[in-house]
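S1.2 Input.
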Amino acid sequence: MRFGNLFRLGRWAVFVPIVVGLLLPAARLAADEFRISDIRLDGLQRISAGTVFNYLPVKIGDTVAEDVTPQLIRALYQTGFFQDVRVEREGTVLVIFVQERPSIASIEITGNSEIKTEDLKRALKDIGLADGRVFDRSVLDRIEQELRRQYFALGKYGVEITSTVSPLERNRVAVKINIVEGLTARIKQINIIGNKAFTEKELAEQLQLGPTRWYSFYSKNDRYSKQKLAGDLEKLRSFYLDRGYIKFDIKSTQVSISPDKKDMYVTVVVEEGEVYTISDLKLAGDLVMPADEIFPMIRMSRDDPFSRKATTESSERISKLLGNNGYAFANVNTIPEIDDANHKVVVTFFVDPGKRVYVRRVNIKGNTKTRDEVLRREMRQMESSWFSTEAVKRSRERLQRLGYFEEVNIETPAVAGSADEMDVNVKVQEKQSGALMAGIGFSQSQGILFNTSITQNNVFGTGKRVVFAFDNSQANRNYRLAYDNPYYTVDGISRGFDLGYRKTNYGDLDVADYLTDVATAGVTFGIPITDTSRVGLGLAYQYTDFSAGDSLISKVFEEENGSKFNDFNLTLTWTNDTRDTSVFPTRGALQTFNALVTIPGSDLEYYRLTYRHRRYFPLAKDFVLMANGDVGYGAGYGNTSAMPFWNNFYAGGPRTVRGWVENTLGPRERGANDDPVGGNMRLVGNLELFAPPPIGGDFQKSLRIGAFFDIGNVWYTKSESTDIVSPIGISLSDLRYSAGVSATWLSPVGVIAVSLAYPINPKGGDDTQFFQFSLGQLF
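S1.3 Output.
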């Protein structure tokens, strides 16, 4: 029995350690886990407890193990609010000790001039460094690196950036970033290696960057930047690709800087390759239009050197042609097939016209005052018709030329659920079309100007124009009442009425001494010829009361013709306006022709003709070249030997030839007075280069500066007047030239025009004037 009992006990002796070994880890595991009865936060200053609880991965009542501590610490560190986190356990209470990161009390940036402080602070805020935010040193380090990168891109390789973090009370810090920008590295030399077909000088002319020149203070062409260099390399590549060098390649670009970080040396290594010529031109794809209509859009010929620019422009012209015929989503791709053996290229234009698109609706928004019909009658894109890119463009231009709107935007979204329909959405921003003005101005020729006017270009939103004006100056007194309806008929024929009275003392205008009182009443009609041109016809009655002064020419005219005249004037005008806008245009032209003839039987029988052509050419970098030509001629007929001299043409001054006193060029009276009398023929030319203003903001739209060259004069062609005025006859040697700079500012008090002009060829007796300005004149 004992042996048996011992045997049974032995078996239990073996089994018990096994059971205990299995149960002890489970008991220990159960002991490590606990149910959270409370969570206590210690160390909070600015951050609320609720914010911390939102980020914690556990909550009261959860059962957790000891290994939850790393998870808690990680979650709180990731918030970025704390620089130290410690977790402890007091029984079933979870205790979290935190040390908050300091907040930013202020950020001060000093020493920066190339980058504005406002732009820097805005960028810092986007990154996370701003007043009131939690301070993170790693963010500040990244900002320093990014600032250096920005200044390096501007060519300032000597920039020094120092950041100072000063602790303040209540766990706050003040951040100060001090920037020493240093000098911009200037390009000392650009070397191009590997060029054979073109000289280094020819290639350098294609680049924006270059060594310092006399104009570098304005163009900044000698200031190195990575962006400018990348743009120049692309220009160089385009230069070769437009001349047949399809295999042209830029092998390497090396930029080195002098030890003092002031001079840059740029070396570009190129491989030109061979010239490839065009062997054939083809059209492929879905030709929805006849090929003989598409081929003229391709301005390329066989055996010409291949040109990437010419192929791109040809593709754009084909797309535009298709767009004008309803294929709004046409896509034209150029596929060159290169024959390396013979250096030939077959250029294929693959046409994918897409579906032809109709315009479902023309929607107009933003016209709170102007009636819909006023805008719709200017639209050249009609509803339910094929979409036309050109018609939409013309519609926008016509709306802009109305002068009723600050901005005109047109969008052409596709109609949802339809593959062949689109809408034309016109959005306008109206401006004040009426004005009640009382002002004062100054002109060097007329002295102080007082003006009062009530003008409404868009009466009750109908597009009709009403004007009442009163102007008074030392030389002029003018009253005018006018009315014009631009759509007297639905076809766009206009009708207007004009009543006016003008009293002028020419002796105060630096010309011959005499006075005129002129009263007029007339009616005009305008007929549209095209979208940009009109013909006008007018008939007016004019009463003139003339008083001769001390001038000889006025006394002779009064003796021959009397002093009071009743005339009926017939006028013919032609205007063609293709400018993109009427104020500070950048492209297009304005042509005007005016003919005034008094009807036979009038007291004075004469005619007066003028033609002006002003054209604007957009150049690079917002530069605009303006060329203007002005020709005028007048003469008498029937019983009147000459055009009345008060209708003479004048030259000199801000509107014709700057550098001479206004109205003083041309023939003068003989005798002691020696007053300018103008002439019956005028020839004026102006060439002016407009540049963007050197200051930004609102001045970009209201200020224009320019450099000009003026030429012109007036002549008297009536040979019988040799005893009265001199000289007589036309001589191109009498032309006067001037050059200078100008500025025009659309200021809140009126238009201010200033010019500094140098008369190039003044002659004896000329009244020159270097500085000229006017204030408050109509633009």
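S1.4 Remarks. The first strand starts at residue 34 and ends at 35.
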